[in-house]
Amino acid sequence: MKYPILIASLLLLTFTSCKNKEVERLQTELRLKSEQTKQLENQLENSQLTNANLLDRMEDLSVISKEGASSIRASLESISGQTAFIQDMSREMQRKDSLNLALVMNLKRSLNNVNDNDIQVEVRGGKVHVSISDQMLFGSGSARVNSAANEVLGKVATVLNDHRDLDVIVEGHTDNVPIKAKGIRDNWELSTMRAAAVVRVLSDEYYVDPARLSAAGRAEFDPRGDNATANGRAMNRRTEIVITPKLDEFFKLMEQPGSPG
Questions:
Q1: Would you say 219 and 231 are in contact if contact means Cβ atoms under 8 Å apart?
Q2: Of all residues in the chain, what percent carry a pLDDT higher than 90?
Q3: How far is CA 145 from CA 161, 195, 204, in A?
Q4: pLDDT at 226
Q5: How much is the pTM?
Q6: What is the pLDDT of residue 253?
Q7: Inter-residue contact 164 to 103 (CB < 8 Å)
Q8: By C-alpha distance, which of 21, 41, 23, 42 is closest to 31?
């Protein structure tokens, strides 16, 4: 009889032990589930706070949009217009720079057999300047164009006629030595007469449209060299053919809607 009782006791102990382990496992799982639930509750609370903050901000934005929508829209339109204007101006400037480069190359190619001391081609102030020495164009104190200068003016005129959308200003320049020629009052008059003489040659003999041409006398007041030296005075006695883009194109651009000012 002892053995059955012993076996029963062992079975009871085993069952109890297994049951206790199962209880412990279940308790552990319950504790973990409780912790997870607490974490989820914390996350939910944080989400609710975040949503509340977002709603508050949306209300603020709603107030701003109602009160300042027209002002903001006007500002954006103004910025957009100014950006478009700047882009247009940038394109125009790039186009002008490219044109100036092409002009300089064409002029130098046409005048490559002329002494560099007598004629210079360069870009200054966004314009192409063809500077021709006094000794190549005129006799001393004279406003009559030398026949030898016609070849040079003819080559310049050919390039001008290839670019009919550009204006041309012919400027006469002198040194500061007072003129003593008969019938010419002063350097102002001499420089203006010389500029007009070159304009007539370009227009009458080489068919440059006279509507594109202007003549200006600068006398000694725009020197390139030092009038205290012979070399400086020689540099200052010159005629400059200034090739410039038509300004009315830029004025039209300035008048377009969206331009600043």
A1: no
A2: 38
A3: 21, 10, 13
A4: 96
A5: 0.62
A6: 47
A7: no
A8: 23
- pLDDT confidence of residue 128: 92
From 3.30.1330.60, 3.40.50.2000, 3.40.50.300, 3.40.309.10, which CATH number describes the 111-251 domain?
3.30.1330.60
pLDDT on residue 61: 55
Separation of alpha carbons 234 and 148, rounded Å? 19
Q: What is the pLDDT of residue 38?
A: 72
Helices 2-110 and 247-255 meet at what angle, rounded to 10? Answer: 140
Instruction: Give CA torsion, residues 146, 147, 149, 151, to 10 deg.
Output: 170
Query: 226 is written with which tokens?
Result: 């030092």
C-alpha 158/C-alpha 248 separation (Å) is 24
| Residues in the chain, pLDDT under 70 | 1-34, 36, 40, 44, 47-96, 246-261
Model pLDDT, residue 245 = 76
